[in-house]
Design a protein that fits this description.
Order of helices and strands: EEHHHHHHHHHHHEEHHHHHEHEHEEHEH
Number of helices: 20
Oligomer: single chain
Strand order of the largest sheet: 5-9-6
Strand content: 5-15%
Largest sheet: 3 strands, antiparallel
Structural class: mainly alpha
Distance between the termini: 66 Å
Shape: globular
Helix content: 40-55%
Radius of gyration: 24 Å
Length: about 475
Amino acid sequence: MNFNFKRVADPVYKTIGLSELEINVVNTKAVQRLRYVKQLGLAHFVFPGADYSRFSHSLGVCHVTGRILEALGSSSAEVGIEDREITLYRLAGLLHDVGHYPFSHAMENSVKKFYRDKMVEENNGQSENADEDENTEDLERDKFFSHERVGEEVLAKDDELRAVLLQGNLDPEDISSVFMRSKPQRFANLVSSDLDADRIDYLLRTAHHSGLPYGSVDLDYIVSQMRIDNDDRVCITMKALRAADHMLLCRYFDYLQSTFHKTVTGAELVLEEVILALLDSGRISCSRHDVTQMIENGSWGQFDESLLIDKIRDYAEHTSEPIGKLQAQSILRRLPPKLVWEEEFLASRYEQKTKELFQHLVQRAKEKMSMWSERSGIEPERWFVWKKSVELTKVGSHLDVSSRFESETDDEDKYWQAIRVLATETNGKSTPIMEVGRSLMKVLSDYSIYILRVYVLLKPEEAHRKPEIKSIIQRSLSFGKD
C-alpha cells in the first residue's frame, strides 16, 4: 500500500504521509471533529502555544506507528509484517482518540461523577428486595461511557466511518480492539504502553507547542533499536536502554510541569464543576444512551469544545446561581482559582503507610473546608481539593513475574505494557525495563510523587485576600501533623 498517497506538512515531523484509505478516514466527520478538541485541555491558559488539537496528535500517532512497524520489518525478515497489518495499526493510532469528549479528561470526570451520583440516588430509592449482588461496575457501564468506550462505540455505530473502513476491507471492530486491548494483538503496545506512538507524539508535540524542554525524545534512535522478541512482543535492544529511561523521565517531568501545572489543574477543577452544572441543567446530556444516539444520528461530529463554550456562555448569562456564574466566568475570562496550600513528596508507590498518610492528609483537608469557609466568609462551593500520585512506569521493579497478578494496583495488562529490553541480540529473550539492573527504572519505578493542593476561587475584588487565606490554612493544616 502507498502510505504517501497524500503528504501533510507537520511542525514536528516536517511531513506525514497518508494512504488513500487514511485520507478517506481523516475526512469523516468523526475524525474532523478532533480539530475542535484540544489535546491538553486548559493548558493553553498557562502556555499559550499549547492549544494543539487531538486531530494533529492523531495524525502524529499514525505516523509514528508506521515508522516503528517499518523499522521492525526492516530489522528482520522473519517478523513478517504485511501491509494490511501496518494499515490496521496505523488506523488504530489515527482513531485512538476519536471518542474523547470536549475538554477531554475534565469532561469525562464530570460525566462519571454526574451519572454515578444519579446511580446512587436511584439505588437508594430501590426496595430492600433489590438484587444486592448486582455489580456496581456493570451499573456504571450502563450509565455512561469512558472515552475509550465512546471510541469503540463510534467504530461500531458511525455509519460514515464504518462505510469507509469496510470499503477498505477492514473490520472496524479489529481497529477498536487494538486501542481497547480487548483481543490479543502482537503490536497493541505500539498504541498503548509505556513506550507507544501515543506517548512519543504527545511528548514531542507538547514540547514543540508549549516551549517546554521536556519532550526531547530520541525518536530516531529508539525506533532504530526496536525489535520483536521470542514471544512476538515489541521490545528494544540494550543499546536503547538510556534513551528509553530518558523518555520515561521526560514524560514524568512533562506531566508535572504542563498537565499538572498548578494553574492548569485549578482551572480544570472549576471547569468540571461548570460541566456538572450544564449536565444538571439539561443543557447537555452525556449518558450512554445520549452518546450512542449522537453517534447514530451524526450529531457527535458537532459535539466539540466550541459547542461547549457556547453552552457555558449561555449558562453564565442565564443562571440565577451566583457561584455558578462566578465559576463560568472563571473559565470564560481565564480567572482560575488561587492555590493557597500545597504538599508534595516523593515516596514508595507500594508502601501502605505512605498511602494511608497521604489519604489521611487528603481527608483532613476535605474535612477542614467548612472551617476555612466559616473563618474566611467564602462559600464552601468555592473551595477545591486536588490530589494526584504520579509514577514513571505502569508497574514497579519489585513486581516479579510470579507475583505481578497479585498486586492490588498493578494488573496483568499493565505488566505487559512495560518497556521490554532484549538481553542480547542473539537469544531473543526480553525483560521488563524495571527489572533490568542497569536501568534507572530499576529504582525509580518503585516511587511516586504524591501531590495535594487546596484552591479557592476568589472574586476579582477579593484577590488581595490570598495571603490572609493562606495563613488560615497554614495554621490548621501541615504535613504529617494532626
